[in-house]
Amino acid sequence: MPGTLHAQLLDLVCGAFLLAAVVVLWLRQLASIVRAFALQGVALAGIAALLDGHDSRWELLAVAVGIGLLRAGLLPLLMRRALTAVATGPAPLAGDAGGGASGSEAGSTAGSGGRAGGTGHHYAEDVSEARETQPLVNVAASLLSAALLTLLAYAVARPLVALHPTPATRALPVGLAVVLIGFFVLVTRRRALAQVVGFLLLDNGITATAFLAASGVPLIVELGVSFDVLLAVLVLGILTTRMRAAFGGTGIDDLRELCDR
What are residue 244's phi and psi, to 5 degrees? Predict the structure, then answer.
């Protein structure tokens, strides 16, 4: 592949990789956030594939295929299943928490109108579980923070790029920026599934930084890291479902209140 075309394609894929992380900050619907993460997985696989096209190493091509299957296919599928289980699973109603006897008496006097109100309340809770309703930082401030974190990543990576300026190392700040954005999502989001996406953004950024700084990593190392990430997502998915069943929601405020008690 010609050097100029390779550099342009690598810049394009790295731009899509960074843009997907910024889109996660912009979106509120958890299903859309998962789709944006899947697109970032495609971009990460593209980074590995372009490094392979430049260096002609079959190990990087195998890593690119594995990344595409795991981070753009399996992990988003597991998160969508966890989101479906959380949004449609049973959640305690307000009357259940306040006492079963009084709720039954109110239902017998109110008739069908009271039952309709209870159903509506339950539906509202399900809708709230499908979106990030109250992040610690609003969307406008989050996007501004993403811009500042990207500038910080470019400033920090400048000495590293100067050591060996190549098309891959010049894109190194993109990986660092996604690491910072992933950590920002992990800190500022309140829904458990949104925090899982933040953790995975952080891992994607670390993987991209390793690819760009060292022109890829050994296949066995990437397989080990990928299996660790897969196990973490499985455990977090189970915990998210159990949180919904125990507390009626997946907000981290419930866990903080439990810790305070």
Answer: -65, -40
* Tokens linked to 196: 């899982």
Which residue from 69, 67, 73, 83 is spatially nearest to 32, judged by alpha carbons? Answer: 83
Question: Tens of pLDDT along 154-192?
Answer: 999 999 888 888 888 899 999 999 999 999 998 898 887
CA distance 233 to 85: 15
Overall size of the chain counted in residues: 261
Q: How many helices (H) and strands (E) does the chain have?
A: 13, 0
Q: Rounded distance, CA 134 to CA 144, Å?
A: 18
The answer to whether 198 and 232 have CB atoms below 8 angstroms apart is no
Enter the pTM of the model: 0.74
Amino acid, res. 261: R
Per the CB < 8 A criterion, the answer to whether 30 and 194 are in contact is yes
Residue 213: C-alpha distances to residues 5, 7, 107 (Å): 20, 15, 65
User: 191 in helix, strand or coil?
Assistant: strand
pLDDT tens for each residue of 91-129: 444 444 444 444 434 344 344 444 344 444 444 445 556
**C-alpha span between 139 and 25 (Å, rounded):** 7
Alpha-carbon span 105 to 215, nearest angstrom: 69
Closest C-alpha to 215, from 171, 157, 163: 171
- Give yes or no for residue 255 having a pLDDT over 60: no
- For tokens 């790029």, the residue is 161
pLDDT of amino acid 240: 65
- Calculate mean pLDDT across residues 58-66: 79
